[in-house]
C-alpha cells in the first residue's frame, strides 16, 4: 500500500512540470501503463488530476483549492510561538513577532524579557513603522512600486537623532535590508532600546512575518545584541521551515525575494 501511495504522489510533481500522457507517466514511475492508469484514475476521482481532451493529464483544480485552504488556515503565531519561547530562554531578552496588515505593522506575539528592565510594547499594537526592525523587513519585501508609494505616504517622526528622516533615506534603508536579509533598530525609536530582526518566509519565499529580539542598553550594548543575530536568524529559519513545510537551508544567508 505504501508503494502505491508513493507512486501516486510521485505523479503530482511530474504533472506540475506540465501535462503528460499515460506513457510519459508510466515511464517516469517505471511501471506498466495499466498500473499508471489505475493511479491516474484514482487521482482523477479525487480531483487531484484532470484528463484533457487530448488524453494528457494535468493537475486538477481540487489540488489548488486544497493548497489555498491549507495556506489560509496556517497560523504563523501558533507555529512560531514555541520557537520564540526557546529563543527567549536562550538569550533572556524580549522577543516579538510581527505581521504587515492594511498598511500597518502589528505585533502579534511577545515573550517578555527575564530581566527587571523591560520594554513597553503590546500585542496588537502597531509598531513605529519607519524605524522598527520588523517593519523594515516586512516592507522591504513589498514590490518596488508598492514600497515607493508607501514610503511617499508615510510621516517620518524624529523619535531620536537616529530615526529615519525622510522617504529617500527610508527606501535606501529598505534596499539594504532587502539585500542582507535582516534588519536592526539601534536607538531609532528609543535611545535606550536596540533590536535585531529576521524574516519568516512562507512556501512562496515571500516574507510572511518578522521576528525580533530587543533589549535596553542597561542590559546589553548594541554590539552585544548584534552577536545574537546568527541565533535570531536560525530561529527565523526554523519557523520558516515549519510554516512553509520545507526544510530551511542551515546557515545560508538569504536575500529578500525579488519581484
Automatic annotation (TrEMBL):
This is IclR family transcriptional regulator. It comes from Streptomyces siamensis. InterPro entries: GAF-like_dom_sf, HTH_MetabolicPath_Reg, Tscrpt_reg_IclR_C, Tscrpt_reg_IclR_N, WH-like_DNA-bd_sf, WH_DNA-bd_sf. Signal peptide: none annotated. It comes from the Bacteria. Pfam families: HTH_IclR (PF09339), IclR_C (PF01614). Keywords: DNA-binding, Transcription, Transcription regulation. PANTHER family: HELIX-TURN-HELIX TRANSCRIPTIONAL REGULATOR, ICLR FAMILY, HTH-TYPE TRANSCRIPTIONAL REPRESSOR ALLR.
Amino acid at each position: 500500500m505504501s508503494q502505491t501511495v508513493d507512486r501516486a504522489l510521485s505523479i503530482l510533481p511530474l504533472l506540475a512540470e506540465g501535462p503528460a500522457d499515460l506513457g510519459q507517466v508510466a515511464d517516469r514511475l517505471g511501471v506498466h501503463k495499466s498500473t499508471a492508469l489505475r493511479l491516474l484514475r484514482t487521482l482523477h476521482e479525487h480531483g487531484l488530476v484532470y484528463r484533457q481532451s487530448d488524453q494528457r493529464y494535468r493537475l486538477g483544480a481540487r489540488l489548488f483549492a486544497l493548497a489555498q485552504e491549507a495556506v489560509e488556515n496556517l497560523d504563523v503565531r501558533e507555529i512560531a510561538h514555541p520557537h520564540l519561547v526557546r529563543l527567549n530562554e536562550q538569550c533572556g531578552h524580549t522577543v516579538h513577532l510581527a505581521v504587515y496588515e492594511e498598511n500597518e505593522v502589528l505585533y502579534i506575539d511577545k515573550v517578555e524579557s527575564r530581566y527587571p528592565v523591560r520594554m513597553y510594547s503590546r500585542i496588537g499594537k502597531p509598531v513605529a513603522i519607519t524605524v522598527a526592525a520588523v517593519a523594515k523587513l516586512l516592507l522591504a519585501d513589498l514590490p518596488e512600486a508598492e514600497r515607493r508609494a508607501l514610503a511617499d505616504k508615510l510621516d517620518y517622526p524624529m523619535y531620536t537623532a537616529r530615526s529615519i528622516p525622510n522617504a529617500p533615506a527610508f527606501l535606501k534603508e529598505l534596499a539594504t535590508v532587502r539585500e542582507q536579509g535582516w534588519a536592526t533598530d539601534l536607538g531609532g525609536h528609543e535611545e535606550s532600546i536596540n533590536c535585531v530582526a529576521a524574516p519568516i518566509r512562507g512556501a512562496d519565499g515571500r516574507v510572511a512575518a518578522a521576528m525580533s529580539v530587543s533589549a535596553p542598553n542597561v542590559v546589553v550594548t548594541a554590539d552585544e545584541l548584534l552577536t545574537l543575530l546568527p541565533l535570531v536568524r536560525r530561529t527565523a529559519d526554523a519557523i520558516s521551515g515549519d510554516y512553509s513545510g520545507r526544510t530551511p537551508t542551515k546557515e545560508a544567508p538569504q536575500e529578500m525575494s525579488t519581484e
